[in-house]
Design goal:
The structure holds two protein chains of two kinds. The longest helix of chain A is centred in the C-terminal third of the chain and has 12 residues. The termini of chain A are close together. By secondary structure, chain A is α+β, with helices and mostly antiparallel strands. Chain A has a four-stranded antiparallel beta sheet with strand order 2-5-1-6, with helices on one face. A two-stranded antiparallel ribbon of chain A has the order 3-4. Chain B is an all-alpha fold. Helices cover 68% and strands 1% of the residues of chain B. Chain B contains 15 helices and two strands. The chains are: A alpha+beta, B mainly alpha. The structure holds adenosine-5'-triphosphate (ATP) and magnesium ion (MG). Magnesium ion (MG) binds next to loops of chain A.
Chain lengths: 112, 432
């Protein structure tokens, strides 16, 4: 199993969620986060005073998926979250060892 | 303790027995004029309009501009000043401003505790004396509340209370007397329709002294001090604008052509200010902003205030356009100079009011003549009005702050400032 963590632009969330559900994802966790990449945040100006805003609002998605879905999910994420401009985000994939479905006690891929 | 409770009760008894005595009849000019129902309705409604400028208008305007840890503390400043100064005005402030003139500098104590302020017409108007008193009360309250933007996010609450009362009695009332209560500036022929000097120069330059004496907020120029809720500020702008019709058109003290003229001038200047501030910042920083438009609207309103009843719609347009650019330039200058007038009271009200007083001396054409209409002397009088207001307010505010500093201290501790006013001063949170 794999744990896919994706950081995306907040306004892309709905589109990404629909595309992922279409692709067969069973569940996901979403949180509002802040972060920066290479451009190190952005600038905002209020009444002539410029502020460097280090952390830009982003949405973080966490998906636990079966190994055979990996390719399809990553492609789906990449296309649905992409705008082509800076700050589109990142996808991190790691191996996932244990999953437990609390109500039934199932473990492994059956629990996803 | 027991003794002071007793003397307080005694004082109450005295006050009540005087209050319940026979109502004093207005007798300054012999018999009072007739009450005009239309005028009275308009001034009572205008008074409520000006209340709405203060709370919630100004409170929201300022509240949105601070960080979320200080929003209640900021709303609190305006709300408690409204309560406090209203009482101070009824008890003492009104008579100092509008009691019979004593030597051109102050009003007599004839209306102490508002005794003798009754239902008969205020001289020269068709409105009850009580309506005039309460209309003026709203001006007294908002003027002090305006100053709070300069020391936002760092003033100690007890210091705020003491400062507000002292400033209103020692600065606002005498100034209102000089300009509107038959004092020396009124005698001189100074024009201030609705408070360019009495309200805006005074609060704006008191704000400058406050910003300098309290010093910068902790982390100023280093930490982000981004406004926490600009939609709140825009809502406040709308309520201020709405209420400003009562402020300016109400200052005609009647439901008449003068009120309509002031109403139109007010609206045009607000719109022009919003447009020109936006244009100026668009040219300078590359983007038009919502906060810029909101600030420009208030700048236009503050600047037209002294001339609202004296200028044509076209002059109001020009005054509004100038206001947006000049006040924006004052904000930029503030950043260069490095003083932390946190919510730009100096740039918008001080500079706006000053500009407006001078502009009135140039463009007055309705019921008075300015420079352009053959009366250069009026411009000189306006200059004296603006400068003497500024000097009086700067010196007076300095002395009052020194006293308040000695008695209770001006600033919250550095740790309290870090935590925010909401939790440190009031033990409550806006967003939980
Ligand atoms: N190396 C990283 N580690 C953890 N989170 C990161 C990393 N890089 C980016 N992020 C997160 O992803 C968000 C979006 O990053 P972003 O797309 O701006 O990356 P980038 O490398 O700057 O690419 P681009 O040039 O396309 O903007 C960041 O705000 C941050 O939350
Ligand atoms: Mg980036």
């Amino acid at each position: 199993m794999k744990l896919v963590t994706a950081i995306i632009k907040p306004f892309k969330l709905d589109e990404v969620k629909d595309a992922l559900t279409e692709a067969g994802v069973q569940g996901m966790t979403v949180s509002e986060v802040k972060g920066f990449g290479r451009q190190k945040g952005h600038k905002e100006t209020y009444r002539g005073t410029e502020y460097q805003i280090d952390f830009v609002p982003k949405v973080k998605l966490e998906l636990a998926i079966a190994d055979d879905l990996e390719g399809k999910i990553l492609d789906t994420l990449r296309t649905a979250a992409k705008t082509g401009s800076i700050g589109d985000g990142k996808i991190f994939v790691s191996d996932l060892n244990i999953v437990i479905r609390i109500r039934t006690g199932e473990t492994g891929e059956g629990a996803l | 303790m027991k003794h002071s409770t007793f003397s307080f009760m005694w004082l109450l008894v005295v006050i009540l027995s005087v209050c319940c005595g026979p109502a004093t009849v207005w007798a300054q000019d012999g018999t009072p004029g007739a009450i005009d129902t239309g005028d009275t309705a308009w001034i009572l409604v205008s008074s409520a309009f000006v209340l709405c400028m203060t709370l919630p208008g100004l409170a929201l305007f300022y509240g949105g501009l601070v960080r979320s840890k200080n929003v209640l503390g900021t709303l609190m400043h305006t709300a408690i000043i409204l309560c406090l100064i209203s009482i101070v005005w009824v008890l003492l402030g009104y008579t100092l401003a509008f009691g019979t003139d004593v030597g051109g500098v102050i009003g007599s104590l004839e209306f102490l505790f508002s005794l003798g302020v009754g239902q008969d017409a205020y001289p020269g108007t068709g409105i009850p004396h009580l309506a005039f008193m309460v209309f003026q009360l709203m001006f007294a309250a908002i003027t002090v509340a305006l100053i709070t933007g300069s020391f936002a996010e760092r003033m100690k609450f007890t210091a705020l209370l003491l400062f507000a009362v002292l400033w209103s009695v020692l600065i606002y009332s005498p100034l209102a007397h000089w300009v509107w209560g038959g004092g020396w500036l009124a005698e001189m022929g100074a024009l201030d329709f609705a408070g360019g000097a009495v309200v805006h120069i005074s609060s704006g330059f008191a704000a400058l002294v406050c910003a300098l004496m309290l010093g910068q907020r902790k982390g100023y120029g280093v930490e982000s001090m981004v406004p926490h809720n600009l939609p709140m500020t825009v809502m406040g702008t709308g309520l201020l604008w709405f209420g400003w019709f009562g402020f300016n058109a109400g200052s005609a003290l009647g439901a008449n052509g003068g009120a309509a003229s002031a109403f139109v001038a007010t609206h045009i200047a607000a719109c022009a200010g919003g447009i020109s501030w936006m244009g100026a910042e668009w040219l300078r920083t590359g983007k038009p902003t919502m906060l810029g438009v909101a600030s420009g609207i208030i700048a236009g309103l503050a600047t037209i205030t002294p001339g609202a009843g004296f200028v044509s719609p076209l002059a109001a347009l020009l005054i509004g356009l100038v206001a947006g650019v000049v006040c924006y330039a004052a904000v930029v200058l503030k950043i260069r100079l490095g003083y932390d007038d946190s919510l730009d009271v100096v740039a918008i009200h001080g500079v706006g009011g000053f500009t407006g007083i001078l502009a009135t001396g140039i463009f007055a054409s309705v019921g008075a003549q300015g420079l352009l209409y053959g009366t250069p002397g009026q411009f000189v009088i306006q200059f004296v009005l603006a400068v003497s207001t500024l000097v009086f307010v700067v010196v007076g505010t300095f002395v009052i702050l020194k006293v308040v500093d000695l008695v209770v201290g001006l600033r919250v501790s550095s740790e309290e400032e870090e935590i925010g006013l909401d939790l440190s001063q009031h033990s409550e949170r806006a967003y939980s």
